[in-house]
Amino acid sequence: MFLKSLHSKILFLTVCLLVVGVGIAIYFLVKHEEKEHLEEKLRSSRFMAHPILNAIYIDMQEERADMARNLIASLNKVQGIDGLYIVRANGKEEAFKDLKTINDVKRQFGGVRPEWLSNHADEPENTARHVDTPDFRKAYDAYMQNRADGEMYYIDRTGGRPVFTYLYAISKLAVCNKCHAAEGARGILVIRTPLADLYQYLAKKRTEWIVSGILSIGVGAILLSFLIKRSITGPIKENVDVIKRITEGGNISERVKVAKEDEVGYLAKAFNDMLDTLERRAEENKKLFDLITKSKEEWVATFDAIQDLISIHDKDYRILKVNKALARKFNLEPEGLIGKSCHDLFYCKSNPHLLCPHTRTLSSGVANTAEVDDMVFEGSYSITTFPVFNAKGEVWASVHIARDITQEKLLRAQLLHSEKLSSVGKLVAGIAHELNNPLMGIMGFSQILMDMPGDKKVSDIKEKLNKIYHESLRTAKIVQNLLTFARTKKTEREFQSINDIIKHTIEFREYSLRANNIKVVLDLDQRLPKTMVDLFQMQQVFINIINNAEDAMVSRKAPGTLEIKTRKLRGRIEITFKDTGPGIPKEIINKVFDPFFTTKDVGKGTGLGLSITHGIIIEHGGTIDMISPESGGAMVVIELPIVEKEQWATVKKAVESGAAGVQPSGKSVLIADDELSIREALHDILAREGYRVETVSDGKEALNSLEKNRFSLIITDVKMPGMSGMELYDAVSNRHAYLRDKIIILTGDVFSQDIKDFISKRKCPFILKPFEPKELTDLVKQVLSS
């Protein structure tokens, strides 16, 4: 309970810190006092050691053995000395405690001096004191290993009381060998001084310091408690009381008193500011709630007003919501369809369709489109599904929009047939010439045969009959080709040679082109692979392009040249038509594929030829672009995919159902961004506008795609790992000059100097993140039209 309050916690923590600080201070004070006294003991030991060592050396030089012995005996009687003696070099015996050395001298020299034996002890068991302790043995071993002069010291605690033990290695002189030849002339001087008084003193001082520390901590805690309450916990408690009253339903206009300009005061001021904001937010929330309620009502009204059939389906193909237009198809209210399986309800089968756009959207996470004819409603429908993501970024449902395109498909077929018929008019002059030539031959040879005498043999007229026969076949073939071209025919892909289609198409227009002084130059790649195309639709495409080129060159009233070239490029078939006409003005070149757009006089064109041509190429998965070369004239570039028979067998159903990937505009857009979510969003935005979209995750992948495919526009993020958008811009400008002005930069950073300098220097179009989809689509249209 004590530590529950903020005051007690702060006080407890502060006191603990004081206790730790005082404890550390006392510890270092005791250690310092101990060190000072031990150093004093060391100096005293050194002071006593010097006369003893001098006495030992004098004894050796003067061949005596009593001065050092008597000096050591005298010093051992001094108060405060626990023991002063010499340990022989063997580390076991004490010097001057037996006659071992004197007896060795007697044997060697035959006698000793009388003073050597005066008051000399002779103990039968001579073992030096305290030589069996670990500390002494450690010091002795170190001495024996190094054989060096010097001192050592340690505190001996083995006897239950601490003793300062000082050791000094005795130097070896030459004269020492006379008496100590047997065991060496070195020993260790040991001086032991008791430390009991020292540690009693230190204990007393420690107690005094602890008592002083406790008193200081107590006084400090009282002062701290008062200061904490006055400066921190008191003002905070006042603030909390106000907050509690407000949270319990009090008046939100009440404010906390700001007593001081400190942290607590700042807290109180911040709380008052928060209350001001809450008051404003409460009013704003009320307005926002009213607005949301109104928006919801408007959204529901809009949702139900849409005449397309709209529904929302979950991952289990259950219907979550439908609009009234769809419910009316079943003569039910929208609630009556919720929860039912969409494939059981909408289609004439019980299982989901393999090409169902909802299935593909669930797996791919992008919008998909398909045309179906097997719904329970009569007619054809274009179905588009858009993914709905959850918080984890997973697709959990899709918005399903079905639009009735029965009349649209009928009109489209009629329009295609009408355009074919309008093209027939262009063919009449050439076809008339082609028919008149063989008919002239038939008539001529027939007249010759009729004028010949009747007695001619069959062999005589066989050659002329054979010519009549071949001219008749030629006429039949011309009529058959004309009727086939004009006939309404269902799309049917066959494995065809583009070169052969071009040659046969030129045959249609050969007379008209020659009559208008137009030379046709063919540069056809003989190694060009075949591909799956609709023969008659391709003929119509080439006829439309040749007709436009012919009209343009005739308008100049001068001889012209039409160059037709084919080649394999980046795994696709490229077909180029280049004329020597007046060309196409830059301001209208991006409109030539729009329906009903024409530059011809009234009555001389429908404005549908290139529009239909564009649709046919896109339906085949290709692209078509109109270019005005600097050399003059106009150039149409067509790219078609190379599709093998085996490949077509696997995608035929998708093509017949509307080819979900086919886009009406034919403009190819390459998107480079390292963020997957941004790539998917941009893909969906532009795909819904009718663009063919390819996405890559970095600049290197973008360059690889540009080597394989041709694009109308590039959209790239300015910052990407590996190759940045700025590096990609420069690389594309150098390698693919036709895209230099067709690159849009995406950036969320225009404050970095390098990005500002780049955009300013290159003058490239850019758009700031985040942006509205309409901003992007408007900019794309603007760049493509420039």
Please characterize this protein's 3D structure.
It is a single chain. By secondary structure, the protein is an alpha+beta fold. Helices cover 51% and strands 16% of the residues. The chain is built from 22 helices and 21 strands. A five-stranded antiparallel beta sheet has the order 6-5-9-8-7. A five-stranded mixed beta sheet has the order 11-13-14-16-15, covered by helices on one side. Helix 1 packs antiparallel against helix 2, helix 1 runs antiparallel to helix 7 (196-247) and helix 14 runs parallel beside helix 15 (535-555). The protein is elongated. The model is unreliable at 181-185, 602-608 and 653-665 (pLDDT under 50).
Helix/strand layout:
Blueprint: H1 6-61, H2 67-75, E1 83-88, H3 100-109, H4 114-117, H5 134-146, E2 150-156, E3 163-169, H6 177-180, E4 187-194, H7 196-247, H8 263-305, E5 309-314, E6 319-322, H9 324-329, H10 342-346, H11 357-364, E7 368-372, E8 381-389, E9 395-404, H12 406-451, H13 458-486, E10 494-496, H14 498-515, E11 518-524, E12 531-533, H15 535-555, E13 560-569, E14 572-579, H16 609-619, E15 623-627, E16 635-641, H17 645-656, E17 668-672, H18 676-688, E18 692-696, H19 699-708, E19 713-717, H20 725-735, E20 743-747, H21 753-762, E21 766-768, H22 773-785
Parallel strand pairs: 11-13, 17-18, 17-19, 19-20, 20-21
Antiparallel strand pairs: 1-4, 2-3, 3-4, 5-6, 5-9, 7-8, 8-9, 10-12, 13-14, 14-16, 15-16
